[in-house]
Amino acid sequence: MSAVKGSHANLDDYRITSAVEIQALLKQLLESNTLVTLSGPQGANHTTLLLTVDASRGVVCFSAEADDPSLTSLLESDEVVATAYLDSIKVQFDIEGLVLVHGGRHSALNAEYPKTVYRFQRRDAFRVKPFSSHSPQAQFRHPGMPDMPLTLRILDVSLGGMALFLPESIPMIEAGSKIGRCIVDLDGDTRIEAGMAIHHVTVLHPEYHGARLGCEFFGMDGGTMRTLQHYINQTQKRRSALSSDKT
């Protein structure tokens, strides 16, 4: 995986290595026809479905659109990550040995059966407010004005995304906008890069002079996700400790 700071964080609470549990999760993804996103470190992603889960052969098989240009980048990468949602749970695992298989008029993607799966509860359960003393901020270019670099304050962050404060002095960013590269500085030890989609724009009370942008991350590799999870865990623990000290 990529050498991202904090990528070796301990995530034993979320790691599944039991063959029975992995089989159950993959079977649930298969039988529910749940969409799975395959993502690479350069932002390439391909939305697919599980077609086959074969533990005895050590293979999982995904549907494939052979003419999708993102597939070339994914097939050349050794850092592909699969992400899917089962109700309120995020399921994620690394993809090894990804190959495109042609069969008649249809194509498929074969990969090695995962030995480890991460099972994360979805966004809101892990949403934390960064400590303002660390000046948490996101840097990217305005999607409607590419020549305008922006540095916005992070209001809160989760595994799935974050909320940003957009001052009224900056041209509005429309819901539905996508940013291919965003640098997220959470503290001195946690800096990640990800793609970002703006899902919600909420104009705040006039006294705040700005709007709240609800953003969703995309294109994060496994190392980046683990770094973010570690930061959220540590922030939760620190806030809990501070609350205990006050009581």
Order of helices and strands: EHEEEEHEEEEEEEEEEEH
Number of helices: 3
Helix content: 10-25%
Which structural class matches the secondary elements?
alpha+beta
State mean pLDDT (0 to 100 scale).
Answer: 84
In spatial order, strands of the major sheet run 1-10-7-6-2-3
Number-wise, the strands total: 16
Q: What is the assembly state of the chains in this entry?
A: single chain
Report how far apart the termini are.
Answer: 42 Å
* % residues in beta strands: 35-45%
Q: Regions with pLDDT < 50 over 5+ consecutive residues? A: 1-9
Main beta sheet = 6 strands, antiparallel
Form type: globular
Radius of gyration: 19 Å
Describe this structure in words.
There is one protein chain. With 247 residues, this protein is α+β, with helices and mostly antiparallel strands. The protein has three helices and 16 strands. It has helices spanning 19-31, 70-76, 222-246, and strands at residues 15-16, 36-39, 45-48, 50-54, 59-64, 80-86, 89-95, 99-103, 106-112, 117-121, 137-142, 145-157, 161-167, 178-187, 190-203, 210-218. It has a six-stranded antiparallel beta sheet, covered by helices on one side. It has a six-stranded antiparallel beta barrel with strand order 11-12-13-16-15-14. It has a four-stranded antiparallel beta sheet with strand order 4-5-9-8. β14 (178-187) and β15 form a beta hairpin. The N and C termini lie far apart (42 Å).
